[in-house]
Amino acid sequence: MPAEAVTAPDSPDASPAAYHSLPPLSYAYDALEPFLDEATLRLHHDVLHRSVVEALNHALHQLAEAQRTSSMALILQRERECAAYSAEHALHSLLWHTLRPGRASLSGGPLAQELGRTFGGFEQFQQQFTARVNQLKNGGWALLIWNAHRRRLEIVHTAQLSPDWGAVPLLPLDLSEHAYYLKYGPDRAPYIEAWWRFVDWPYVSRRFEAARKLQWPAL
């Protein structure tokens, strides 16, 4: 989940470091082996995610300054930067929550039932998700989302996301090279295969059950 903002961005006393912070991991850096080794997880969390948080804080500071001007072009530019960094921060934060040491299967419950209704079953969902990922040649994120407007589960890539769609991310997979290259090299397939064995399905299920309570107008 996104880290809480502790100082309002438009506060005259706000500093860029005050808006968001890097969320700590709930497990050790070597706890996700053999999926991710310690070096990869430290790089991804401590260096790359931290850089996203710092960039977001800086962008928020610049947005606050731009809003004191009359330049709408500058304000729109800063808003786009904030939106991009905020999405990356939120998805990285969610990623850490959806991973856990050891295997946790999805054994029944509302999410399993909804996967069955939408995709034909859990195995069919895995196959469709993996097939979608294998079609994506660039980085970004692949996600299982709950579409609060359409009241259904969907598999999407970040290029497809729009705030107007009511997309609630449930399960993200980072497809950028920094997420896997140190351990797997250029071959992404073993990384994806190993990822399935470390998904925290109880957490994803709880998130789904909260998301489906949202009552948004159908489109």
Automatic annotation (TrEMBL):
Positions with a binding annotation for Mn(2+): H44, H92, D174, H178
EC number: 1.15.1.1
Keywords annotated in UniProt: Metal-binding, Oxidoreductase
Cellular component GO terms, alphabetical: cytoplasm
PANTHER family with a match to the protein in the record: 37S RIBOSOMAL PROTEIN S26, MITOCHONDRIAL, SMALL RIBOSOMAL SUBUNIT PROTEIN MS42
Highest taxon in the source lineage: Bacteria
Signal sequence, start to end: none
Cofactor(s) this protein requires: Mn(2+)
Swiss-Prot/TrEMBL catalytic activity: 2 superoxide + 2 H(+) = H2O2 + O2
Keyword Metal-binding annotated: yes
Any GO molecular function: metal ion binding
Residues covered by the Manganese/iron superoxide dismutase N-terminal domain: 20-99
Name of the protein in its database record: Superoxide dismutase
Role played: Destroys radicals which are normally produced within the cells and which are toxic to biological systems.
InterPro entries (UniProt xref): Mn/Fe_SOD, Mn/Fe_SOD_C, Mn/Fe_SOD_N, Mn/Fe_SOD_N_sf, SOD_C_sf
Protein family according to the UniProt entry: Belongs to the iron/manganese superoxide dismutase family.
Pfam families: Sod_Fe_C, Sod_Fe_N
Manganese/iron superoxide dismutase C-terminal domain sequence ranges: 109-207
